[in-house]
Amino acid sequence: MSRTMIQAAVTMNQLQQKLDLIGNNMANSQTTGYKTRQAEFSSLLFQQINNMTDPAGAEGRLTPDGIRIGSGAKLGSINADFTTGTIKETGRVLDVALLGDNHFYQVQATENGIPETRYTRDGAFYLSPVNNNEAVMLTDGDGNPVLGENGRIVIPEGFDAISIDETGQINVQRGNQMENAGTLGVVEVVRPRLLEATGDNSFRLPDLAGLGFAMGEVVQDPAGQTLVKSGALENSNVDISKQMTDLISTQRAYQFNSRTISMGDQMFGLINQLRS
Asked: How does residue 102 score in pLDDT terms, banded at 50, 70 and 90?
């Protein structure tokens, strides 16, 4: 197989992954708090062919002498765009939208029997019965406990109403009395690009020591500040028009590379005919 066909085949494989990424963005255009994923490409190793024998040919040349023949492109990284989406009013008491950039809720998920803290922008919360229905716990849409400043938020049964104010304070009404049931543990991630997507619209922090970063990438927001908007949710920040444009350009690039393979095959056919 020729070098040209190898380059095209490698690039087509990586373009297929970008098409899958675009499809995932479009499928989550209505997912609460979803952040657009972006593909970043990088060149694979290339070979330097020094074909210039006359030193005078290098005069005035801005690039190094010779020809650089690459081996195609690869999907270097997938980055999330953490810009805040538009806020949609829902009127539901347990719907809470984050107002600050790089702010996240904390939820406790269990994977392979090991609990870990994950971060999400999805503020659609629910109440799940615990302790033989003697109390309720604040959870996300998948049933994972939402973490407050002091761990899980568990509220004894018997309250008449519940509300969440702009500072993240959870208040319940029992008769004529109002009491505080906890505070949402809203945090700010200093370097959000370090977050790893874990599925289910949530993220985790990787091993920061292995990446050469010190701890302290997550900062607890101080109490008393305006952090959330109750009765509202944050829409996905997916721009459908941009995704469609990227889809068309990626499909065209895929077609060009597939055409390269077809043309290379035809040229080999002509050469074989000439030899025979």
From this structure: confident
Specify the 3-state DSSP secondary structure of 79: strand
Cα angle for residues 102, 106, 109 (degrees, 5° grid): 130
Alpha carbon separation from 165 to 68, 169, 179 (Å, rounded):
61, 5, 13
pLDDT at residue 68, rounded to an integer: 64
Reported pTM: 0.76
Q: Which residues contact 46 (CB under 8 A, 6 or more apart)?
A: 68, 69, 70, 71
Q: For residue 154, give the amino acid letter.
A: V
Task: Give the torsion sign (CA, 119, 122, 123, 129).
Answer: negative
CB burial string 187-217: b at 16+ within 10 A, e below:
bbbeebeebeeeeebbbebeeeeeeeeeeeb
